[in-house]
Amino acid sequence: MYDVCIVGAGITGITAASVLAREMNKKVIIVEKREHIGGNCYDYYNGVGILVHKYGPHIFHTKYKKVWDYLSNFTKWLPYTHKVLAFVDGKLVSFPVNIKTLEQLLERHFTEGEMQSWVEKNRVPIEKPKNAEDMVVARMGRFLYETFFKNYTLKQWGIEAKKLSPDVTARIPIRFNRDDRYFTDPYQGIPKDGYTKMFERMLNHKNIELVLNTDYKNVINDIKFNKMVYTGPIDYFFDYQFGPLPYRSLNFAFKTLNQEWFQPVAVVNYPNEFDFTRITEFKHITGQKHSQTSICYEYPQDHVIDKNVPCYPIPKKETQEMYEKYKNRAKKLKTVFFIGRLAEYKYLNMDVCVKRGMESIKMI
Predict the structure, then answer these.
(1) Residue 171: CB partners within 8 Å, gap ≥ 6?
(2) Which of 153, 181, 184, 183 is nearest to 166 (CA)?
């Protein structure tokens, strides 16, 4: 007999299990469909001994001290400041947009005030942006939109920006200084021994039992439990009653090169050229010393159920309306709690997933 059955051993489910077992002395079983823990945060050592992230780069950053402090019980941190470049017109330029970006693109010096004037002159006044394209041109102007966002968005989502919710680009910053950090949260770092090792420590408790390679629907009638924390796809829970919620997926193509370094930073975006959206070089992230290097190309693709991994919910009005139907059904269940990016059909940063998992105490 278990107090709680958790569906999904991603970062949300793992955190919920750890908190419930340690702080509430609950007996927990986790059922995970994949062959590994950690969900899309899973990392492993490849054939030449380089630590890589199976599902693309995962950089931990948060403004929540309680989240950082909780994870710090299970890992030491490697200090890491994430920086991204974009390949534009044959050269690498700073991203997100800041003073350096304009200087590199326009080949002239800018002060903070000059950049503010330039942006104000070029942006298109739109009082209420209706879509992702409107959001960017209203904030930055059409030149920056077409340089960094127009084609990248089409590759990433398979949909033109004008057909996507303004939320897609609303959180993309523009900085009127020379701060070229991708994230500005006060707590940033990479688990010293990798994400998987941190997760293993979180699950190492006498009250936690883990079952891998198992669809919960195949065993749920054989497990006795009081309550469920469900972190899987909400539409799958309800047998796609209102139709499958659409996602964008990614194909990750890994290469190991017989050279020490490939590019100057961990991630380089390719907004215009090529079919892939970005290249990641993992040694920049992990700080690992190795004579060779491993890189990963990301090719966006449509999500096909049971064929590839659902990565990003499609941010459109129609899909949100479909999700609301599932959400309303979920509210009627008093012993099942839906948390995490798949269960909430929402793009969530890792720290928010941890926070959701920690808050599961309030539900049980």
Answers:
(1) none
(2) 153
Question: Is it true that the peptide bond before 96 is cis, omega within 30 degrees of 0?
Answer: yes
Secondary structure letter of residue 319 according to DSSP: H
**Residue 80 and residue 247: Cα distance in Å, rounded?**
30
Query: Residues 6 or more apart from 23 whose CB is under 8 A from it?
Result: 361
CA angle 263–187–295, rounded 5-degree value: 20
End-to-end Cα separation, the chain, in angstroms: 16
Alpha helical stretches, state H, 4-144? 11-23, 65-71, 99-106, 112-122, 132-139, 142-144
The whole-angstrom separation of Cα 6 and Cα 308 is 22
What DSSP state is assigned to residue 244? Answer: P
Tell me how far apart the alpha carbons of residues 354 and 339 are, in angstroms, rounded to a whole number. 10
CB neighbours of residue 255 within 10 Å: 11
Instruction: Encode pLDDT of 325-361 as tens digits.
Output: 999 999 999 999 999 999 999 999 999 999 999 998 8
Strand 225-230 to 336-338 pairing = parallel
Helices 112-122 and 99-106: angle between axes, nearest 10 degrees:
70
Predicted TM-score of the model (pTM): 0.94
Tens digits of residue pLDDT in 103-140:
999 999 999 999 999 999 999 999 899 999 999 999 99
The residue among 24, 4, 2 whose CA lies nearest residue 230 is 4
* Structure token pair of residue 106: 């326009």
- Which residues 6+ apart lie within 8 Å of 170 measured at CB? 135
DSSP single-letter state for residue 148: I
The answer to whether 233 and 244 have CB atoms below 8 angstroms apart is no
Six-digit token string for 205: 């408790």
